[in-house]
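Retro notes, structure queue

What went well: the backlog is down to a handful. What didn't: a couple of records were mislabeled last round, so from now on we paste the full input next to the output in the thread. Example, using LysR substrate-binding domain-containing protein from Granulosicoccus antarcticus IMCC3135:
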Amino acid sequence: MKVIREFAVSRPKVSVRIDASLSEHHRKSLRDGFLDLAIMRQPLGIETGKVLAKNQLVWIADAGLDLDNELSISLAHISGPCQYFRAATTTIEAAGDHWRSVYSCSTLEGVRAGVCSGMGVGVIPVEDCTDLTLIREHHRLPKLPEFSVAIEMAIIDPPVIVRVLAEKLKEVL
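Corresponding output:
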């Protein structure tokens, strides 16, 4: 975020606004002309922008959560069209197991809170796991896919100022 603040301060006539949301919402905002560029996480292989990095998704759970005695895997997740939630449910179903939603929220911090309360397991990028003791491996938790971090722009030939910001973000990310 520091690079965005420095960019905004160095160009006081440019309006810079950050919209933290789900990638699906960013994609629609790009399409509708409400955003000039977006940094999005999406399943590796389906990205349409410039890939900056790869992130491995991991399962997180409180150590006290007993997955062996649950009929269905209890999920703590972001509500709405969340790609991480979709990855979790898809991999669980592909492994022949069942899941249920037990905790829904709007942020990764909320997912962590639901997980730490023992409500269920969550899915986050390993880079976003501030407490590595939460990372959980279990025979009922199948391997999760990698995700990409990509920059996408609203139009094919964006204004110079948008391209300058995109280059600065690429350098940092």
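Agreed that this is the format going forward. Reviewer comment attached to the example: The helical segments are 2-10, 23-31, 83-94, 108-116, 160-172.
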